[in-house]
Amino acid sequence: MDGFQTELVALLPRLRRFARAICRSDADAQDLVQATVERALAKRSGYRSGTRLDSWAFTIMRRIHIDQGRSATRWGRVVTPEDAATPNVADAAQADEDLRADALAVRDAIGRLPEDQRLAVALVLVDGLSYAEAAEVLEVPAGTLTSRLVRGRQSLIQTLTEQGVSA
Amino acid sequence: MTDPFDDEILMRRVDGELSPEAGAAIDAAAAADPALARRLERLRGLRTLAREAFPAASDSRDADLARMIAAAPARREPWTARLSRTARAAFAPRHAPLWGAAAAASFVLGLSVGWLGQDRAPGGFVVAADGSLADAALVRVLDDGLAGDGLDAGGRAVGLTFRDADGRWCRTFRSGQAGVAGLACRNNGVWRLEALAPFQPSSSEVRTAGADTPAAVLAAVDALIADETLDAAAEAEARDAGWR
């Protein structure tokens, strides 16, 4: 493997985390990670070495996610019963059991945020990117990122307060 | 009394997006104001919970993805390695991609746009106003020719063939009688000019693909190429498939 491939492998846990934070289901997140890796490999010439691979890969993932969201809205989603029974989901289920109830409540609340706010929260709160990096991934001005982040957080705090979760 | 600290500035404090002085000012105010301290604490708690909610845990499916990544071709030799020694020497040290793009752009602007006004470049090289090639003989060479064919009767030949990042087929060419060499990419069945430069044939009788190609055209190739140039078999296959 060359440096690009090594870095991409090292990035997988963060890519999966971002995917899980923005997708409705674990199966969708897995599809999104796989599609992102495939496109990153196909488009690797578009990556300039010396720049941040994480921002570049997150941007690819965000674009695929938005495109898939559009087509899912258009065509509706076909969910097969096998989805729930896939053995691969065991990891995710086990991870869920280990989570505190408060963290689970936050996860559900993030999942109910409007898409724009959910992406901003996933990049800054979950992944820990700076505002400038997150704005770059979302391809929006810094002010737009900040206002999505403020509104997303206000809404999360309100939801959690209503549920009696002490954040 | 109005609160000087709105949600945004507290959020910036928690996310580490304030200067140390501004952060210290908020911390000092919070030390004297329990309500403010409570708001900060909630924001911090939310950040912690959000990270906990989505742990960056290892996942067995990552191993499959890692295998897929490892199976992808590693960075192969740069496409310039296929050029003749002379052409490589002219092209070394390898230009920075940004420089290449700028050089290519300035050549298109400086040369072809200058010629567009009169529709015909010096020596009969024809470019339509939208940048598509209108020289029927050259279009035929781009459509049907292979690098191995060498020069046609009018001194036209194709050189390197590759795909750009958008999946378009691109080919370098020379048009000896017109005294130009260039790069054209195919879009919706039309070859559009991407770069053009004056061309002087070398005295050498031996011609290999890419030899004699002006540096500006090579820089344009470098700026556009997605993977690497095609070898003779792949080139023939792409042509036979009608550049799809």
Please characterize this protein's 3D structure.
The complex is a heterodimer of chains A (167) and B (244). Chain A has 167 residues and is mainly alpha-helical. Chain A has two domains: 1-86, RNA polymerase sigma factor, region 2, helix turn helix motif (Rna Polymerase Sigma Factor, Chain: A, Orthogonal Bundle), CATH 1.10.1740; 99-167, Arc Repressor Mutant, subunit A, CATH 1.10.10. Chain A is 75% helix and 0% strand. Chain A has helices at residues 3-22, 26-42, 53-75, 82-85, 90-98, 101-111, 115-126, 131-138, 142-162. Mean pLDDT of chain A is 84; it is low at 74-90. Chain B has 244 residues and is an alpha+beta fold. Chain B has two domains: 1-74; 85-240, no CATH class. Chain B is built from nine helices and six strands, in the order H-H-H-H-H-H-E-E-H-E-E-E-E-H-H. In chain B, the strands form two sheets. Chain B has a four-stranded antiparallel β-sheet with strand order 3-4-5-6. Chain B has a two-stranded antiparallel sheet with strand order 1-2. Chain B starts with 6 loop residues before the first helix and ends with a helix.
Overall average residue pLDDT of chain B: 76
Radius of gyration of chain B: 29 Å
Q: CATH superfamily assignment of the largest domain in chain A?
A: RNA polymerase sigma factor, region 2, helix turn helix motif
- Number of discrete domains of chain A: 2
Radius of gyration of chain A: 17 Å
* Shape category of chain B: elongated
* Sheet having the most strands of chain B: 4 strands, antiparallel
Order of helices and strands of chain A: HHHHHHHHH
Uncertain segments of chain A are 74-90
Gross CATH architecture of the largest domain in chain A: Orthogonal Bundle
Number of strands of chain A: 0
Question: How many DSSP helices of chain A?
Answer: 9
Total number of helical segments of chain B?
A: 9
Q: Return residue spans of chain B where pLDDT drops below 50 for at least 5 consecutive residues.
A: 88-124, 203-210
First CA to last CA of chain B: what distance? 70 Å
The structural class of chain A is mainly alpha
CATH class value of the largest domain in chain A = Mainly Alpha
Protein name (chain B): Anti-sigma factor
Organism (chain B): Brevundimonas basaltis
